[in-house]
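Hi everyone,

Forwarding the result from last night's run.
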Amino acid sequence: IKIITWNIGGIHSPIKRKKVLQALKRHKADIALLQETHLSSVKHLKLKTWWVGNIYENPALGRKSGVVILIRRGLDFQISKQYQDMEGRYLLLRGILEGRELVLGTIYCPNKHDKIFNNQIQQVLRQFDNLPILIGGDFNAVADPG
């Protein structure tokens, strides 16, 4: 399974959206973990023009953040639960991928150390103590700048 994680820095432009999705196809991505889409729920529907498969999204607030997980058609993934914040910074999918239970996620962390966000994501991840967790993302700042 080929997984690509990519901070795409916004894909409002149809030309950029097409180029990003063509690049994923060219690289034969089975799963794409994208950050900073800058898209609303309605705009995420436009990804269906170029992506053949499932699209799971946590939309942006305004023109910042926004994350999406793309899973190519034919890849056996059955989602059991979706976890996301209200700011479009993370999306976690609990499910079964090719017969194995796991958590698949994408995250776009704040640019500066944010203790509240870090505590929130750690609390969510603790729920999955016994499951493999695969997260791709743009982490921006370290969790403990110590």
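The longest helix spans residues 14-26.

Cheers,
N.
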